[in-house]
UniProtKB/TrEMBL annotation:
<dbReference type="InterPro" id="IPR036700">
    <property type="entry name" value="BOBF_sf"/>
</dbReference>
<feature type="signal peptide">
    <location>
        <begin position="1"/>
        <end position="23"/>
    </location>
</feature>
<keyword id="KW-0732">Signal</keyword>
<dbReference type="InterPro" id="IPR005220">
    <property type="entry name" value="CarO-like"/>
</dbReference>
<feature type="region of interest" description="Disordered">
    <location>
        <begin position="27"/>
        <end position="48"/>
    </location>
</feature>
<protein>
    <submittedName>
        <fullName>TIGR00156 family protein</fullName>
    </submittedName>
</protein>
<dbReference type="Pfam" id="PF04076">
    <property type="entry name" value="BOF"/>
</dbReference>
Amino acid sequence: MRKTTASLAIAALLVLGTTASLAQAPGYQGPSNAPAPQPTAPHYSGPSSVQLMTVKQLLDTGRDDQHARLQGRIVSHDGGDRYTFADDSGRITVEIDNKDFPPGQTISAEQKVELLGELDKDLRKVELEVDRITLIP
C-alpha cells in the first residue's frame, strides 16, 4: 500500500509539473480574462473597378453611397472614429473603425495610404466611410 501511495504521489507530481509547464508555454489556449484578439479578415489586393479620385473630385461630383478610392494621408484624429484625410486637392472627414486599420501596423500622419470606402453625403455632412486602408510604400 505504501508503494502504491508513493507511486500515486509521484504520478500526481509528474502530471502537475507537466501541466504547469504546458500552461506557461507560448500559444496558451486555456481560460483568460484578456479580450479575445480580433481575427483579421482577408481582403482582395488586386485591381479594382472603383475609380481612384481626388478629394476635390469626390466632394464636387460624388453621390451618396458611391464607392471611392482616395490616395493621400490621414493628417489628424478628430475624436472617436473620425479622422481628417488630405491629398493635394483638399481635405475630407473620414470614418475609420479600429478593425479597418491594417493589423499590427501603425500609420503616421506622414504615411501615404489608399482608402477604399463609401461616400456618406447628406445636408449636414459629407464623409467617406472607410472599409479598407492600404499602406502605399
